Amino acid sequence: MAKYHVSTSINDEAVEFLCEPQQTLLDVLRDELQLFGSKEGCSSGDCGACSVMLDGRLVCACLVLGVEAEGRAVETIEGMAKGDQLHPLQQSFLEEAALQCGVCTPGILIAAKALLERNPNPTETEVRYWLAGNLCRCTGYDKIVRSVLAVAEEMRGG
Amino acid sequence: MATEVKELKWIGKRPIRPDGVDKVTGRAKFGADLTLPGMLVGKVLRSPHAHARIKSIDTTKARALAGVKAVVTSADLPELASEWVPAGELQINFRDLSSNILARQKVFYDGHAVAAVAATSAALAKQALALIEVDYEVLPHVIDVVAAMQPEAPLLHDDLFTEGVTPTPETPSNIAKRVEFARGDLEAGFAQADAVVERDYTTKPVHQGYIEPHAVVASTSEDGQSEVWCSTQGQFSVRFYIAKLLSMEISQIRVTPSEIGGGFGGKTTVYLEPLAVLLSRQTGRPVKMVMTRAEVFRATGPTSGAALSVKIGATKDGTVTAAEATLRYQAGAFPGSPVQPGAMCAFAPYAFETFKVVGYDVVVNRPKVAAYRAPGSPIAAFGVESALDELAKRLEIDPLALREKNAAREGTHAAYGPRYGPIGFVETLQAVREHPHYQAPLGPNQGRGIASGFWFNIGGESCAMLNVAEDGTVVVVSGNPDIGGSRASLAMMAAEVLGIDFERVRIIVGDTSTIGYTFLTGGSRVTFATGMAVVQAAEDVVRQLRERAAKVWEISADAVIWEDGQAHPAGANAGEFEPLSLRDIAAEAGKTGGPICGNASLNAQGAGPGFGTHICDVEVDKETGRVTILRYTAVQDAGRAVHPSYVEGQLQGGAAQGIGWALNEEYVYDEDGRLQNPGFLDYRVPVASDLPMIEAVIVEVPNPNHPYGVRGVGEVPIVPPMAAVANAIENAIGVRMCDLPMSPPRLLAAIDNGG
Known about the structure:
The complex is a heterodimer. Chain A contains 5 helices and 5 strands; from the N terminus they run ββαβββαααα. By secondary structure, chain A is α+β, with helices and mostly antiparallel strands. Chain A has 2 domains: 4-79, Ubiquitin-like (UB roll), CATH 3.10.20.30; 88-155, [2Fe-2S]-binding domain (DNA polymerase, domain 1, Orthogonal Bundle). The termini of chain A are far apart. By secondary structure, chain B is α+β, with helices and mostly antiparallel strands. Chain B folds into 3 domains: 20-28 and 459-604, Aldehyde Oxidoreductase, domain 4; 34-139 and 212-261 and 267-299, Aldehyde Oxidoreductase, domain 3; 306-457 and 608-752, Aldehyde Oxidoreductase, domain 4. Helix content of chain B is 28%, strand content 25%. In chain B, helix 7 (235-246) packs across helix 8 (273-283), helix 10 (339-345) packs parallel to helix 11 (377-395) and helix 15 packs parallel to helix 16 (526-553). Chain B starts with 19 loop residues before the first helix and ends with a helix. The interface between A and B is large, with 61 and 60 residues.
C-alpha cells in the first residue's frame, strides 16, 4: 500500500512522516514517531487516554487519521513540560497524588490543560463534565479534580 | 524484626512518588510501549460462538499469505494434566489455563482464543486471521448461573463432577465445587430470633476495567532463551505460567514487568504472554501482541456474576442469633470462581455464633473469571449488608448500632476459622458515628446508606535488595510491579530505617533475573510483605554500616549505634569519635570491605485483616430511575498509613469501582451468547461527572506483625459500596433493590412495581 507523506508540527517542531491511509494519528505518534506518551485504551474515543491537541482543539488521537495532521499543529504530553519545568498541572498531580497507575494521566493532563486555557475559573462540576471523556479506573477522580481546581486557582494568581 | 518505633521521619508523610515525573511526562513505559527491531505483530482469532465443538482448523491459506510468519493453534501447546496451583487469592489449573489461551476440542465462550498468528504488520495479521478456516459444530450454551445448575442445562465439561459433596456425583454437571462454613445450631438460632430477614440477590459479572489493555513483547533467541516484556501484576507468575504452558525451563525465561496501567487482579494470570513466546520461538523474531478493548471485554476478567440467598435473624436488642447464606458464583468457562473466599468473607465482620454459608462454583459459557479486588467478598457483602439493613429497620434499630452490637473484635472467633488479633472494625464504625456526614440533613428523595466490608489481606514470599552507591544514595530493588504507588511506600520505609532523606533513595522494580522470587502484586500484600522485606534489607545495610564504622574506629561493632543516618560510637566509646554518615561510610566502602549491599528474603506471615465502613448519600430521580451519588465517605483501618495520599487513593478508587458495580456495570449477552457491549461506551464505568468527591477517612489500628503496623488497604474499599448504595436508595424512596446493577431501567421498573 502506498504511503502518504505528511508535513505537520508536533510540539512546536516541524515533523514529516509517512503513513498508510488507515493509520490513525495515534498509530502515527506511537508506531511511526515513537511518541509513546499518548496511550491506546480503546481505539474508539471512549477512554481519552490518547487525548492530544490538534490546532488548539482537544481530540482523541485514535479518532483522527494520520493524514489529517497535514499542515496542522499537534500537541502531545511530550511537549507539556518546558525544558525541566513541569507544567503546573504536572507538578500538582505529583504533589496531590492525582495518579495511581498513571496510564490515563497523559490524556487527563492534556484535557485539563485544554480546559484551563478555555476556562481559567471552572467550577467543580465544569471540571467533572470536561473530564468525563477521560476514564480513570484507579483514583475515583477525587484527587484529579482537586488538583485541577487548585491549579486553576494558582494560575489565576489566587 | 520489630524496629523500635520512635519519632518517625518518613512514615505517614506525603513525599512525591519516585516514579511520578515519568508518569506525568509520558516517559513511563507501559506494556504496549516497547518496540524492538524486526518485531512482528501477533493477533488472536477468537470464537464467535458461546459454545461449540471445533471439528477442524485449516490454517493453510493464512500461512500462505505473504508476510505471515507463523500460525499456532492448541496443537502447538503441550497437553497438560489437571493440576491446581495457588495463584494469588485464587487457584489456577494449568490444563484449563492452556485450554483458555488456545481452545482445544471446544470453545466455551464468545471471544475464546482459537488460533494466533504473527505477521510483519498488524494489517497482514488481521488478514491472516480472516483466512483461518474453523469448522464449528455449535452447541447449546448457558449463560445464567442458576440455569447452569439445573440437571437439564447444557453441559460444558463432561468430566466435571462436583467436588465437596459426598459421595461424589456419578454424573457430570456444571457445578464444579460446593463449599461450606458452618457453626452452631441454625434452626435453634432462628427460633430465638424476634425478626428474620430472608432475601434473594443477584449480581452481574463486572470487569476490572483497567485502562491499559493486555500487552506483551516476547523475543526468543537461538539458544532458546526467551525475554518477555509485559504488563502484569506478577513477573514471576508469568515466568512460571509460561514455563508450565510451553514445557520450558524457568531458567529459559526472563520476564520484565512494564509499568502497569491498572490490573485490580485481572493481570494476575496470562492470556497473550505464552502465545507471544510461542510465536517468537517459531519465527526467531520478537513478537508484540496487544489486545483491543473488545478483546479485553470478551476474553479477560471479569469477576463472577452471582445469585445468592441470605437469611439473618436477631432478637429485639439487635443480637444476631443465626445467619445463613447460599452463594452461587459463575466461574466462567472453567472452574475457579472466588466463591470460597466469598463464603469465608460473608460473615467475617461479625461475631455471629450460629451461621452457615454454602457456596457453589458453577461453570457457564462466559470468559473464565479472574481475580478482581477482594475476589468474592463484595458479592457476598452486597447480600449480607443489605439484609442487615433491612433487619435493623424491622427491629427499629439504627443500622450502625446493629453492626456495633454484632461487630467482630480482637479475640472474636472469625466465621472463617481463626481468632482475630487486633482489628479495627469497631473503630471504623465509631469513626462513621462521629463523622459529620452521618448526621448531615437530607432532602426529598434523598437517602443515606451505610455498609461494611472485610478482606483477609495476605503476606507471602518477597525479596528486597538495597544497593548503596559510592555517594551514599541507595537503590531499592523490589520484585513487585507498582500498581498504585508502592514504590513510594517501600522507599519511604527504607529511608526511615536508614535515617536518610527520601530523595536519596531510588527504587526500581526488578525483572525475574535481577531480584529473587517475589509473589505477585495482589492480596493487598506489597506494602505489608515486600515492605517488611525492604525494612529487613535496610536493617541488613545498617548492620554493615555499623561494622564499617567500627572498623574505621577500631572498636567493636556492638559499640556502634545507628541514629539519624549516622554511625555513633556508644557505651564506653560514646563521644570518642565524630559520627560517620552513610555518605562518609559509602565513600570509603572500598577500603573497609567493598560495596555495601543489603538483602532480605522472607515469607511474610501475619497480614492484618482489613475492615471498612462506607457512608453513601443518594438522590433518586423517580421519573427516570437515575441515581445520583450526592456524598460519599469511606472509612477504613489501614493499620498504619505509610503514604496517606495513596491510602486515600485506594479508598477513593475502590469506592468508585464499587459504585460502578452498583449502578451501571454489566455484561449484556444476546440470545446466542454473544457479548453485546464489549466497549467503554456501553459497558459504562464511572466517569468524573458521575461521582462526587469521595472522602477517605483513615483509621489506624496497627498490625503488630509489621514493623510499622501496616495492613493491606487495596481491596477492602470495593466491598461495601454496592450495599451502601442499595441501602441509601431504600432510605430515599422506600424501594429495596436486590438485583445489580441498580441502573435507571431496573430501578424505574422497581418503582413502577411499588418496590
